Amino acid sequence: MAKKHSYIICTVIILTGLLFLPVHAEETPSPVIVSESPDVPDVPDTDDAVSSPESVSSDPIVFKLEAQTQEMVVPAVFIPEPVFEFEPVVDGAEIVHDFIIQNQGNGLLLITDIRTGCACAVAEYPRYILPQQEDKITITIDTTGYGGRDDFSRTIMIATNDPMQSMQKAMISGRIDDFAKFDPKKVIIMRGPANEKLTFSVTITPSEQHPFTILDYELDDVLKDLVTIHLEKKDKKYILTTENNMKKAGRYMGKIHLHTDSSFKPQINMIIRGIIE
What we know:
- It is elongated, with a radius of gyration of 49 Å.
- Strands 2, 3, 5, 7, 9 and 10 form a six-stranded mixed β-sheet that branches. Strands 1-4-8-6 form a four-stranded antiparallel β-sheet, with no helix packed on it. It has a four-stranded antiparallel β-sheet with strand order 11-13-16-15, with no helix packed on it.
- By secondary structure, it is mostly beta strands.
- It folds into two domains: 77-177, Sandwich (Immunoglobulin-like); 180-276, Sandwich (Immunoglobulin-like).
- The longest helix is centred in the N-terminal third of the chain and has 18 residues, at 2-19.
- It is built from four helices and 18 strands.
C-alpha cells in the first residue's frame, strides 16, 4: 500500500513539471558556434579600404610627383640684352628699339604692365608668351626737347607673373645732339606789367653737323594779335625777338613755327607764354 502511494506522488510531480515547461522551448534553436579558420584573412571594412586624399598626398612619391607637376606650370622671364645704347641722334629724332623677352619656363608668361617713366617713351608689347617661346617689346622715344643731353636715359620697368622675379628692368641710353642752340632758352616767356614794353630775344644757332636756313615763320591763331615777331639773320645765327601787345593783365600761350630748308627737321616749334600783370 505504501509503495502504491509513493508511485502516485512521483507521477503527480512529473506531470506538474511538464505543465510549467515554456511553450516555445522547442522552437528556439540551440546556438551554433563556428570556429574561425586560421587560413581566412580579415576583410577590411569598405570605408577603411578607400584612401583619403590626405593619405594619398602624404605618400612621398605622390608628393614628389605633385611638386614636379607644379614646377612644370611656372613661367620664367628672361631678357637676353636688357641694356641698349643708341648712336648719337639729333634733337627731334625718333628712337625705336626692340627688347627680346623670353619665357624659359613651362607656364604661360603674362606681361601685366610696362612703365617707361616718361610720356616721350611709348611701349608696345604682347600680353602673353607661350612656354619656351619669345617675343619683343618695342620702345619708341621722341627726343624732341632733349637736345644737348649727353647722358639721356630711360628705365623700362616690365611687370610679369613670374613668381621668382615679377619685375624686370631694361634701359635705353645715349647722346642727343642739338639741332640748334637756343640762347638763353627755347621757351619764350613774356612776364611783366601791362603798362610796360615787354620784349624777349632768343639767338638761334644751327649746329655744324646739321646746318639749315630759316625760311619763314607762322604763329598760332591765339598769338596773332597778342605778340609781334621780328626775325633777323646775323652771319650764321638768327635773332628772334618777341614783343608783347597785350595791354591788360592776363595770360596767354601758344607756339611759333619756324620753317627751315632742312629735310631732317623742316619745322622748329618754340613756345611763347605771356604772364601780364
